[in-house]
């Protein structure tokens, strides 16, 4: 069945829409082609639990301040839960928790990943990343732009609280008497947390299941032989256990019903991309040469980093399945070919 979107439009700036009892939807801006993130407020007794936080940039904080003044029924933020460490999700975690003297809740691996991303900013780190992209065929002009861009993470994430409350797969977070079960997923990030409330039949899905675009699943320079696409596809299967009429609250796009259908289309999408990548390996190709096969549009420097990461995720998957072979040439460039 096609996806059903109970709401055809998102909430206006600094406003909320109640999508289930005690669950409010708000939207924050992003300065990218993907121009928004959905955040969630859960009624929590005398206050609110915020799920995800937006980027640590003035437009987002201005909207938060407007909500504090007019949109929270005079109640404070008493807890902040972040689904994962990416800047649009954790960017304002420190600011929100300090402002309201609230606690941060997240999985341990995501907190550690954020710490690493904040600290990994010196020239040696940049040189190693550039060398990785060169080894996978990215041209010198593009790698120079990547290096000049540097580590943009600290500019989008306003630090981390010193302390946090770790959550883990299968644990329950009780919010205003309702039990939200933590379901973790790998592939998009190391230990992405989704929240499932059986009473409401609501899944806060983060970036794990999106209604229209596909989640970025990338290989990154510090883990060059990882197989994140295998992790991601395996994680998708975990959500088949949830009811078909689950209301899915994604981080991007509109809330929807039709979870099982969307899971199926995501698997089919990656199966098709894997087949396209494998078919393109009749002659040895670098990861960079495979980008146009999977991304049929012009890419800026920001998008190129994600595109090469996702292309390599498909190639690493094919290699692990015995459908591709990696070879390091005398020029120091890695290429893949059919076995």
- What gross morphology would you assign? globular
- pLDDT < 50 stretches: none
Q: What is the level-2 CATH architecture name of one domain?
A: 4-Layer Sandwich
Order of helices and strands: EEEEHEHHEHHHHEEEEEHEHHHEE
Strand content: 15-25%
Count of extended strands: 14
Distance between the termini: 39 Å
Description:
This protein has a domain at 17-120 and 150-279: Ribonuclease Z/Hydroxyacylglutathione hydrolase-like (Metallo-beta-lactamase, Chain A, 4-Layer Sandwich). The strands form three sheets. It has a seven-stranded mixed β-sheet with strand order 1-2-3-4-5-6-7. A five-stranded mixed β-sheet has the order 8-9-10-11-12. It has helices at 58-70, 87-90, 93-100, 108-119, 123-135, 140-149, 153-156, 228-238, 259-279, 287-294, 301-320; strands at residues 17-20, 23-29, 36-44, 47-51, 77-81, 103-107, 165-167, 172-175, 178-185, 192-197, 202-206, 247-250, 325-328, 334-337. The chain has 339 residues and is α/β, with parallel strands linked by helices. Strand 4 (47-51), helix 1 and strand 5 (77-81) form a beta-alpha-beta unit.
């Amino acid at each position: 069945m096609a996806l059903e979107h109970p709401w055809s439009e998102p909430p206006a700036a600094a406003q909320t829409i109640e999508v289930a009892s005690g669950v409010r939807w708000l939207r924050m801006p992003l300065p990218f082609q993907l121009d928004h993130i959905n955040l969630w407020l859960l009624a929590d007794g005398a206050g609110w639990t915020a799920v995800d936080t937006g980027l640590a940039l003035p437009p987002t904080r201005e909207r938060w301040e407007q909500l504090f003044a007019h949109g929270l029924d005079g109640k404070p933020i008493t807890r902040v839960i972040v689904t994962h460490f990416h800047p649009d999700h954790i960017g304002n975690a420190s600011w929100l928790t300090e402002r309201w003297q609230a606690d941060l809740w997240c999985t341990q691996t995501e907190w550690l990943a954020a710490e690493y991303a904040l600290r990994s900013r010196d020239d040696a780190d940049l040189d190693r990343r550039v060398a990785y992209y060169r080894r996978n065929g990215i041209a010198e002009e593009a790698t120079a732009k990547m290096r000049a861009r540097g580590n943009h993470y600290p500019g989008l994430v306003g630090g981390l609280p010193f302390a946090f409350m770790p959550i883990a797969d299968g644990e329950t977070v009780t919010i205003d008497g309702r039990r939200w079960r933590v379901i973790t997923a790998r592939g998009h990030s190391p230990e992405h947390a989704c929240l499932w409330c059986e009473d409401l039949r609501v899944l806060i899905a983060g970036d794990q299941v999106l209604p229209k675009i596909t989640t970025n699943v990338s290989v990154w320079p510090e883990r060059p032989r990882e197989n994140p696409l295998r992790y991601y596809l395996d994680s998708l299967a975990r959500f088949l256990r949830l009811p078909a009429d689950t209301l899915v609250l994604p981080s991007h796009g509109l809330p929807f019903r039709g979870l099982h259908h969307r899971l199926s289309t995501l698997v089919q999408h990656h199966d098709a991309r894997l087949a396209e990548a494998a078919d393109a390996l009749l002659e040895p190709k670098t990861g960079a040469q495979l980008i146009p096969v999977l991304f049929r549009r012009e890419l800026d420097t920001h998008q190129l980093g994600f595109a090469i990461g996702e292309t390599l995720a498909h190639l690493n998957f094919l290699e692990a399945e015995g459908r591709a072979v990696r070879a390091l040439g005398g020029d120091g460039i890695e290429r893949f070919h059919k076995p």
